[in-house]
Amino acid sequence: MFDRYQAGEQAILVHVDFPDEGSREDLQEFEMLVSSSGVTALDVITGKRNTPHSKYFVGSGKVEEIAEAVKLHNANVVLFNHSLSPSQEKNVEAVCECRVVDRTTLILDIFAQRARTHEGKLQVELAQLRHISTRLIRGWTHLERQKGGIGMRGPGETQLETDRRLLRERMNSIQKRLDKVEKQRQQGRRSRTRAELPTVSLVGYTNAGKSTLFNTITQADVYAADQLFATLDPTLRRIDVEDVGRVILADTVGFIRHLPHDLVAAFKATLTETREAQLLLHVVDISDERRQENMEQVEDVLTEIDAGDVPQLLICNKIDNLNDIAPRIDRDENGVPIRVWLSARANQGIELLYKALAERLGIQIVQHTLRIPPSAGKLRGEFYQLNCITKETYDEQGNCILAVKLPEKEWNRIAKTETLEHFIEH
């Protein structure tokens, strides 16, 4: 159904430099995308233009050069580092006599390879269907065919209309299933809200080291690799932060410049974890020369998914790739942490991240001394579960004297079921 190619194909890459910043793409990043998709790049054709050519995207001379490279290297696909219109793809294919895939389709293909969960696969399929629906005309040479036969006579339906209708039906079916998954997610979020568990979401440019940081903090085994879009499906884990208590940490898909709108739309449910978080950890590969551009791209996507106003803590990751940079916390004029310098891979500065998290989540801490009689042993067990007991002694009557230090929200939660005032030592 999809215009997907198998990994391991031989490709000619095409990259055009435009003076307009909004149209410009990064060649090095494109080569990483191609490598991540499992395709072998045989040659790179580059050129400069002020605006795209309406027929071929590149000039007519350049398209001949691409066709010659295809024949010379015996390539079977041409990959453009740009988004092409359906007619441009078709026209270049006619000259090169092989398939042409643009940047958007390539990213969708990588996402299709990476999706692991049922929800992730549905979201990728929906994005692919949205993308392919604008390109249906490419694949069909039999549009004049009408449905015929007994019981099927009449005006009929062209093959293209049939395909469009089937696509719409499939897209509606997937959307309904995703809506169902989203309702289940909302229930999970509601239960976390009832338990008053704050959510912290990792965001950042693809390959910034989010999953490595996630694994280091949570001791999880989320797939992490030095390639683009290693993480696709969101992962949630619970961590314990001193003076805060339990916190939900979410690892999310990495962003990229000019992320296809079909993908942003399809992944909005997944990115709700980001939108509804109390704090975003914006992970940046500080050793990347394009870090400033990458940060701006992340901000653009956050704005697009309505998460632009969520408070952020900047994580300057991969300091082990730089000389003479030690882990540290940078603060603003009010002493509030705004940046943490660390290396997730080398496990440097993680304790500083925990410290900054405790401060930024701004949790009110309460301290009390409680006298708990033997009959209220269940209450003592609850405080032990929260790991908030700083001192424990017993008096002559066998009462347990507990000194506790815990977040106010946890104290209030217990207070809803127990009359804690009776136990407080004044």
Description of the structure:
By secondary structure, this protein is an alpha/beta fold. Helix content is 39%, strand content 21%. The protein has 14 helices and 14 strands. The chain has helices spanning 27-36, 60-73, 86-96, 103-114, 118-133, 136-139, 159-194, 210-218, 261-266, 272-275, 291-304, 350-360, 377-385, 408-417, and strands at residues 10-17, 40-48, 77-80, 99-101, 199-204, 235-241, 245-251, 279-285, 312-317, 328-331, 337-341, 365-372, 389-394, 400-407. Strands 6-7-5-8-9-11-10 form a 7-stranded mixed beta sheet, with helices on both faces. A 4-stranded parallel beta sheet has the order 2-1-3-4, with helices on both faces. A 3-stranded antiparallel beta sheet has the order 12-14-13. Helix 1 (27-36) packs parallel to helix 4, helix 4 (103-114) runs antiparallel to helix 5 (118-133) and helix 5 packs antiparallel against helix 7. The longest helix has 36 residues, at 159-194. The protein starts with 9 loop residues before the first strand and ends in a 9-residue tail after the last helix. The model is unreliable at 1-8 and 138-154 (pLDDT under 50).
